[in-house]
Amino acid sequence: MASLPVYRWRLAPEGLATRRQLRAMGLRPGGQDVAAELERPRRRRGPLVAYLYRIDLARPVRPMTPAKRAALAAANAARRVCPECGRDAGYRIPASLGMCTACAYPDTSAA
What we know:
alpha+beta, four-stranded mixed beta sheet
Protein backbone atom coordinates (compact mmCIF):
# COMPACT_ATOMS: atom_id res chain seq x y z
CA MET A 1 0.00 0.00 0.00
CA ALA A 2 1.56 3.27 -1.09
CA SER A 3 1.24 6.29 1.14
CA LEU A 4 0.18 9.71 -0.07
CA PRO A 5 2.73 12.48 -0.57
CA VAL A 6 2.46 15.15 2.11
CA TYR A 7 3.18 18.81 1.36
CA ARG A 8 3.58 21.66 3.79
CA TRP A 9 1.30 24.68 3.75
CA ARG A 10 1.65 26.76 0.55
CA LEU A 11 4.24 24.36 -0.90
CA ALA A 12 2.00 22.06 -2.95
CA PRO A 13 2.98 21.69 -6.61
CA GLU A 14 0.97 23.11 -9.50
CA GLY A 15 -1.82 20.91 -10.78
CA LEU A 16 -3.20 19.98 -7.33
CA ALA A 17 -6.10 21.68 -5.57
CA THR A 18 -8.38 21.24 -2.56
CA ARG A 19 -12.13 20.72 -2.93
CA ARG A 20 -12.79 24.40 -2.25
CA GLN A 21 -10.23 25.47 -4.81
CA LEU A 22 -11.75 23.09 -7.36
CA ARG A 23 -15.21 24.49 -6.63
CA ALA A 24 -13.95 28.06 -7.14
CA MET A 25 -12.75 26.93 -10.58
CA GLY A 26 -16.16 25.40 -11.35
CA LEU A 27 -14.86 21.85 -10.94
CA ARG A 28 -15.42 18.82 -8.68
CA PRO A 29 -13.18 15.83 -7.91
CA GLY A 30 -15.38 13.58 -10.04
CA GLY A 31 -14.70 10.31 -8.22
CA GLN A 32 -10.92 10.44 -8.36
CA ASP A 33 -8.84 9.29 -5.42
CA VAL A 34 -6.96 11.74 -3.22
CA ALA A 35 -3.63 12.58 -4.85
CA ALA A 36 -1.82 14.13 -1.87
CA GLU A 37 -2.24 15.74 1.53
CA LEU A 38 -1.53 19.28 2.60
CA GLU A 39 -0.52 19.94 6.22
CA ARG A 40 -0.77 23.27 7.98
CA PRO A 41 1.13 23.23 11.28
CA ARG A 42 -0.45 24.54 14.47
CA ARG A 43 1.22 25.42 17.76
CA ARG A 44 -0.45 23.33 20.41
CA ARG A 45 -2.44 20.81 18.36
CA GLY A 46 -1.87 18.47 15.48
CA PRO A 47 -1.62 19.90 11.97
CA LEU A 48 -4.65 20.75 9.87
CA VAL A 49 -4.89 18.34 6.94
CA ALA A 50 -6.47 19.03 3.55
CA TYR A 51 -6.75 16.56 0.72
CA LEU A 52 -5.48 17.53 -2.72
CA TYR A 53 -6.93 16.39 -6.03
CA ARG A 54 -5.52 16.54 -9.54
CA ILE A 55 -6.98 19.42 -11.55
CA ASP A 56 -6.55 17.66 -14.90
CA LEU A 57 -8.80 14.76 -13.74
CA ALA A 58 -11.46 17.03 -12.23
CA ARG A 59 -14.85 17.28 -13.89
CA PRO A 60 -17.16 20.28 -14.28
CA VAL A 61 -19.74 20.92 -11.58
CA ARG A 62 -23.13 19.52 -12.45
CA PRO A 63 -25.63 22.25 -13.34
CA MET A 64 -28.54 23.00 -11.03
CA THR A 65 -31.71 21.35 -12.33
CA PRO A 66 -35.15 22.96 -11.91
CA ALA A 67 -36.22 20.10 -9.61
CA LYS A 68 -33.18 20.56 -7.37
CA ARG A 69 -33.72 24.32 -7.29
CA ALA A 70 -37.36 23.79 -6.25
CA ALA A 71 -36.35 21.29 -3.54
CA LEU A 72 -33.79 23.72 -2.10
CA ALA A 73 -36.33 26.55 -2.13
CA ALA A 74 -38.86 24.35 -0.27
CA ALA A 75 -36.26 23.29 2.31
CA ASN A 76 -35.19 26.89 2.94
CA ALA A 77 -38.83 28.00 3.23
CA ALA A 78 -39.47 25.25 5.81
CA ARG A 79 -36.57 26.50 7.92
CA ARG A 80 -38.23 29.91 8.16
CA VAL A 81 -41.51 28.69 9.68
CA CYS A 82 -41.66 28.73 13.49
CA PRO A 83 -42.89 25.40 14.92
CA GLU A 84 -44.45 27.17 17.92
CA CYS A 85 -46.56 29.90 16.29
CA GLY A 86 -46.55 28.64 12.69
CA ARG A 87 -45.62 32.03 11.19
CA ASP A 88 -42.92 32.79 8.64
CA ALA A 89 -40.25 34.46 10.75
CA GLY A 90 -38.58 36.18 7.80
CA TYR A 91 -35.25 34.54 8.65
CA ARG A 92 -33.93 31.02 9.19
CA ILE A 93 -34.95 29.75 12.64
CA PRO A 94 -31.81 29.20 14.78
CA ALA A 95 -31.33 25.55 15.75
CA SER A 96 -30.18 26.68 19.19
CA LEU A 97 -33.61 28.21 19.88
CA GLY A 98 -35.85 25.88 17.87
CA MET A 99 -38.37 28.68 17.48
CA CYS A 100 -38.55 32.31 16.37
CA THR A 101 -37.16 34.97 18.67
CA ALA A 102 -40.65 36.32 19.39
CA CYS A 103 -41.65 32.91 20.82
CA ALA A 104 -38.30 32.33 22.53
CA TYR A 105 -38.23 35.74 24.23
CA PRO A 106 -41.87 36.82 24.64
CA ASP A 107 -41.08 39.57 27.19
CA THR A 108 -38.71 41.53 24.93
CA SER A 109 -40.91 41.47 21.80
CA ALA A 110 -43.78 43.34 23.50
CA ALA A 111 -41.76 46.54 23.88
